[in-house]
Design brief:
By secondary structure, this protein is α/β, with parallel strands linked by helices. It is built from 19 helices and 7 strands. The protein has 3 domains: about 40 residues; about 180 residues, Rossmann fold (3-Layer(aba) Sandwich), CATH 3.40.50; about 110 residues, no CATH class. The strands form 2 sheets. The protein has a 5-stranded parallel β-sheet with strand order 4-5-6-3-7, sandwiched between helices. Strands 1-2 form a two-stranded antiparallel ribbon. It is elongated. It starts with a helix and ends in a 5-residue tail after the last helix.
């Protein structure tokens, strides 16, 4: 019977094919479901996302891949809305930290007074060098340089102001000291939130890692371990004064020595551009010793604000001018009387200070940047903010 049936069927000839219309209602319904997850939120974007999922699904079987939401998110990152199905509470806080950090950075020199001149430093060559270093370090990077040289501003130039794909935790000292407090604030472990970064080269910038030498060592270790678990490359930004201590912490957390990149000061061409735009700095540029101060944009910015007639030749001279003309405002008779912090500051500048010279330079500039900004923020009443500024100082 089986052989007879086969012989009969083999002699049949197709005279005219008759095709039924396909039922693609489930395929169309899938497009509607994916529309809210598509980056543009349109039907066309949802169709592209659906087709991409169909293609990559065919590649998972032969490789016996272990698929989860993180893998799918990263395989379709360019078509997926980065905020879709993320931890809302955690990312609201993380993006706020990122936005606050970016908003606190100043990339211009001068222009403080109404109608004053201001120079915006792009430093494209430095940004290109930093981009090359970050892209060439998939496991993480340690960025260091002198205080006030423009390390933080370089990252704003590099990544712009879009925090959806690459995240900056802000300054380390702005995070809690205890890792458990950060987890409580986020509502989820940091490592879990970091897995929701979808781009192929995932970067987590930790600025101001100098705080790890004070009370935030545990927090830095926690952030680095979370980045390691989430397969995110941590970029740790630190000043040269505590570079060694932070490098040791990164080795303990990452289990390997991270490559390093140095952010250098302004070159001669950039210094000339600053002096040409801000004539008040010309007398400093004419002196070879004081000219070195202008290679750090933060120092040049404070000297412009101080509007001093002197020619500081060292860090101590420059900080004294900033202290007198910005914090104490001795030339302004309406300014409030300074508090006793001035005695501490002057003593820290003494040559017989017990603080070693590199650490003293970091300490004093940290104090000046905190106290100076606080004094300008409170419009002539520096005594309101100097208390918090002193608490931020490593030695107060």
């Amino acid at each position: 019977m089986q052989q007879a049936t086969f012989m009969l069927l083999s002699r049949l000839v197709v005279l005219q094919p008759r095709l039924e219309s396909p039922d693609d209602s489930d395929w169309q319904a899938l497009t509607g479901q994916l529309q809210q997850a598509a980056r543009a939120g349109s039907v066309q974007a949802a169709v592209q996302l659906r087709d991409r999922l169909e293609v990559i699904t065919a590649t998972y079987g032969p490789t016996a891949a272990d698929i989860d939401a993180t893998v799918l998110r990263r395989d379709v990152y360019d078509l997926l809305d980065s905020s879709f199905n993320r931890s809302v509470r955690a990312w609201t806080l993380l993006e706020q930290l990122d936005a606050d950090w970016r908003g606190s950075l100043r990339r211009e020199i001068g222009g403080v007074a109404e109608g004053g001149q201001a120079l915006r430093l792009e430093r494209e060559s430095e940004a290109d060098a930093l981009r090359e270093a970050v892209d060439g370090a998939p496991r993480g990077l340690l960025v260091w340089g002198a205080s006030g040289v423009g390390k933080s501003a370089s990252f704003v130039s590099l990544y712009g102001r879009d925090a959806r794909d690459r995240l900056t935790l802000g300054r380390l000292r702005h995070l809690p000291q205890a890792p458990v407090d950060l987890t409580a604030a986020l509502g989820t472990p940091l490592s879990r939130a970091l897995t929701e970064i979808a781009v192929p080269h995932r970067v987590l910038v930790v600025d101001g890692a100098d705080a790890a030498a004070e009370k935030h060592a545990d927090m830095l270790m926690h952030v680095l371990l979370a980045a390691r678990v989430a397969d995110v490359a941590p970029v740790v930004v630190v000043s040269e004064d505590v570079f060694g201590a932070v490098r040791d912490l990164t080795f303990r957390a990452m289990g390997e020595t991270l490559p390093v990149h140095q952010v250098k000061g302004l070159d001669d061409r950039e210094v000339e551009a600053v002096v040409a735009a801000l004539l008040s700095l010309r007398r400093l540029a004419e002196n070879a010793q004081s000219r070195e101060l202008l290679r750090r944009p933060a120092v040049a910015e404070f000297l412009v604000r101080a509007q001093t007639d002197g020619v500081p030749l060292s860090d101590a001279d420059a900080m004294r001018e900033v202290w007198l003309h910005i914090v104490r405002r001795v030339s302004d008779p309406t300014a409030a009387a300074p508090i006793c912090v001035s005695a501490f500051f002057c003593s820290s500048l003494a040559s017989n200070s017990t603080i070693n010279p590199p650490r003293r330079s970091l300490t004093c500039w940290t104090l000046m940047r905190s106290a100076g900004c606080a004094a300008m923020a409170c419009s002539g009443r520096p005594e309101i903010r100097l208390g918090s500024a002193c608490q931020a100082s490593p030695t107060t």
